């Protein structure tokens, strides 16, 4: 071995980032112009193209439905989906796209469920639900119970981001005991939101209660950060988790 070989800088081949192990992303905001996600069809196509390049076979995009901010309806979302699917096909992007919604839990939503109004679901009658980040909704448990009694299976979107849940250990245990399905944002595992959020996400995964991952993609910045995920210390173990995404 020559002196040059001895001190030559070793190069390591880095595996390209991919999500083929996830198969299906079930949380994103890609229908343009109807919530705080993609603003234009062009931006949606850029995001969907990148997600497709990661090896996903399906995207289930989930626009917000929030009574005070994003007053989307099933009709608005379905129309937006059809337009988006046409654009994706014309752009030659090979990926399946469906739509549901991310429902904000408030009194108005609870009344819709009780009244039997149309609710957008996916998979095995799954419904994606969220709350505010700071304060626990007073009707949280009641709404989850009503959804289950109505034949739905609620999925709790990004619980790692709810400060009230981090602070209320009894509530967390109550939700785990009732076998509520948890969906963690992959971005949380990169530290995108904060270190406490990252730590909480990791603890939920260690507890074995996380059944879904989602990108929660809103714009290109989300995907830029998502591509750093392989640097996460437990990345390889995340790929081996028994996730329900693959059954969608």
From TrEMBL:
<keyword id="KW-0378">Hydrolase</keyword>
<dbReference type="InterPro" id="IPR016195">
    <property type="entry name" value="Pol/histidinol_Pase-like"/>
</dbReference>
<dbReference type="InterPro" id="IPR016667">
    <property type="entry name" value="Caps_polysacc_synth_CpsB/CapC"/>
</dbReference>
<dbReference type="Pfam" id="PF19567">
    <property type="entry name" value="CpsB_CapC"/>
</dbReference>
<comment type="similarity">
    <text>Belongs to the metallo-dependent hydrolases superfamily. CpsB/CapC family.</text>
</comment>
<protein>
    <recommendedName>
        <fullName>protein-tyrosine-phosphatase</fullName>
        <ecNumber>3.1.3.48</ecNumber>
    </recommendedName>
</protein>
